[in-house]
């Protein structure tokens, strides 16, 4: 099966937001691994910052001119959800808020990303990324909400959110670098 090449205009438009989201996810994931005993407020503030940067990246991706109008709204919505969750985390930096606000934000964002993938999977090559990030977000949301029932502490919630972030970050870094290569490969031929 031949490799699927991203059109130059699409790759040029999306590589920066995809790579920014990957960097934010990997940084958050690394914090979740190496921070030995964070307080609930530390986890809440780190998660809020991660959600804000992710929202910015998804917003930039959604407003790219190559993104179909029917998908744009489905991508702007997760950005809005993440911003609302970040506000809740900053206002109430407690373990319960991490589980509820974080869990609901990841669940809703994952469902919206999957809807975006479903709607644009034939028209937009980067839509394949939405399938992976959507599933990982759903899993992260379920894990965070499930952690409430298990009575997890802040470190447990940090691990769940960080684990999802690492998976997302690695996948999106590979995608972002691929888009950068596709955008650059035609520049070199000119």
TrEMBL record:
Keywords: Membrane, Transmembrane, Transmembrane helix. The chain crosses the membrane at residues 42-62, 74-92, 98-118, 130-151, 157-181. The keyword Isomerase does not apply. It comes from the Bacteria. InterPro entries: DUF308_memb. This is DUF308 domain-containing protein.
């Amino acid at each position: 099966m031949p490799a699927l090449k991203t059109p130059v205009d699409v790759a040029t438009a999306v590589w920066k937001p995809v790579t920014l989201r990957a960097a934010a996810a990997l940084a958050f994931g690394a914090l979740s691994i190496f921070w030995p005993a964070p307080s609930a407020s530390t986890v809440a503030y780190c998660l809020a910052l991660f959600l804000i940067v992710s929202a910015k990246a998804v917003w930039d991706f959604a407003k790219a001119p190559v993104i179909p109008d029917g998908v744009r709204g489905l991508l702007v919505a997760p950005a809005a959800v993440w911003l609302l969750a970040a506000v809740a985390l900053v206002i109430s930096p407690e373990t319960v808020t991490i589980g509820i606000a974080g869990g609901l934000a990841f669940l809703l964002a994952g469902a919206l990303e999957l809807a975006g993938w479903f709607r644009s999977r034939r028209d937009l090559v980067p839509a394949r990324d939405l399938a992976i990030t959507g599933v990982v977000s759903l899993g992260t949301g379920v894990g965070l909400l499930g952690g409430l029932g298990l009575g997890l502490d802040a470190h447990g919630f940090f691990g769940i959110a960080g684990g999802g972030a690492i998976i997302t970050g690695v996948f999106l870094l590979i995608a972002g670098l691929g888009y950068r290569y596709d955008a650059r490969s035609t520049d070199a031929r000119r």
